[in-house]
Design goal:
alpha+beta; 4-stranded antiparallel β-sheet; two-stranded antiparallel ribbon
Length: 413
């Protein structure tokens, strides 16, 4: 949207620009400042700044931005025209400077480390406590133990969600800082150190997240995608559904397979989606409902068995090297929820199978099983380009192949 002549923005230049930040062509732009009559001390954006109250008199002067930056008052706002080149540069500088928020944090305590190790052990069995067939008396005696186990798995899932969210947020900060440097290349020498340090923090967070994900579940999810659509049969157990039987069957498969394909969970943990479809189909009717639920439980068990058989087949193709450029989280307004364009499965695959990362391009090389590679390629988009690296079997290192990958060609043909 073009700016309106005479429209102004009021910006705290002193809190954005530090002496070490390169200014490029903006260093010669004159900015209007206010200073004490002695000409010493800070330069201010307004004569009303409280630090000028003790001055005998205040002068208004125009100073080249490059000369003023070392003396800018951090509490003042400068009135700049909305078409001033200083404004977009300030936004880019803020994107890079925001990386400092995540640096120099203290190490985790031993108690936190142990809790996360326990979370990894718990999640290796599933997202929920294993169910055991016990008598009512035994279950009542062990109720406290069950509550503790449920709390344990709740904590484990929260650990995983927290690590996933934090890793994605760090990745997004780095991606946006890369965009800022691409817009203003003269910022690169200043930004490089911050970006390098954040990359180390980002990789540690990625590893911590990947430790809470089971690779076998990601492979099984990819196997679900290649299963043939099951055919409906007139099982007598479906009689209670009447004419809705086939529709319910197809919807149950759709809901279960869709959730299974894009999840980091065990295939069994998607069973509730089938239960919900069947329950909704019956509504308040009871006749035939238990039989239908039992039949669909068996169907789901068959789908899980088929997926695991597919995942366990000897690979027709070896593991493949895949390049991907993951999208950043979209920027939201205050208190708006973040909507990650990556599915949980995609994020888990990228974190788990990373073998190289190009910080400046924001691209990742993954070494993945064939089924996982096929699903990644199938879900490639303009926002998330994906391509096989070295399909001819190049012996170059993954880092070199990633540097040579022209992902821009895929998104801007």
């Amino acid at each position: 949207m073009p700016s309106t002549p005479g429209e102004l923005r009021h910006v705290m230049l002193g809190s954005i620009f530090k002496p070490e930040v390169p200014l490029g062509p903006t260093r010669d732009i004159l900015i209007t400042c206010h200073a004490s009559a002695t000409g010493k001390g800070k330069l201010h954006g307004s004569p009303e700044c409280r630090t000028l109250r003790s001055a005998a008199s205040v002068n208004q002067i125009d100073v080249p931005f490059g000369e003023a930056v070392e003396r800018l008052c951090a509490n003042c706002r400068w009135s700049l025209s909305t078409d001033s080149p200083i404004l977009p540069l300030g936004a880019a500088v803020s994107e890079v400077d925001s990386l400092t928020i995540w640096l120099d944090r203290g190490p985790e305590g031993e108690e936190d480390i142990e809790a996360e190790r326990d979370a990894a052990i718990a999640l290796s069995t599933g997202d929920y406590p294993p169910t055991n067939d016990v008598s009512d008396a035994e279950e009542e005696d062990d109720e406290t133990g069950h509550d503790e186990e449920r709390e344990r798995y709740d904590r484990a899932r929260n650990f995983r969600s927290g690590r996933h969210s934090h890793w994605r947020r760090l990745h997004s900060y780095l991606a946006r800082s890369n965009e800022a440097v691409a817009e203003y290349p003269f910022l690169a020498p200043w930004a490089d150190g911050l970006q390098s340090r954040l990359t180390a923090v980002l990789d540690a967070e990625r590893r911590a997240f990947a430790a809470l994900v089971q690779p076998v579940r990601l492979l099984e999810a990819a196997a679900v995608r290649v299963l043939p659509t099951p055919q409906f049969s007139g099982d007598p157990s479906f009689a209670g559904l009447g004419v809705e039987a086939e529709k319910t069957f197809r919807k149950a498969w759709y809901e279960w397979s869709r959730r299974a394909i894009w999840s980091w969970r065990r295939l069994e943990d998607q069973d509730f989606s089938v239960y919900t479809v069947v329950s909704n189909a019956f509504g308040r009717r009871r006749k035939g409902k238990p039989e239908a639920h039992a039949a669909f439980r068996q169907l789901t068990a068959d789908w899980i068995r088929q997926a695991r058989e597919e995942a366990g087949r000897p690979a027709s193709a070896p593991w493949q090297l895949v390049a991907v450029k993951a999208p950043a989280l979209p920027q939201t307004r205050h208190n708006e929820p973040e909507r990650d364009p990556l599915t949980l499965w995609e994020a888990s695959v990228i974190a788990t199978y990373q073998v190289a990362f190009n910080r400046k391009a924001g691209t990742t090389a993954l070494l993945v099983p064939h089924l996982v590679a096929e699903q990644l390629l199938a879900c490639a988009s303009h926002d998330m380009p994906v391509q096989l690296l070295a399909p001819a079997g190049s012996a170059l290192p993954a880092e070199t192949l990633l540097e040579q990958w022209d992902h821009e060609r895929l998104t801007h043909p």
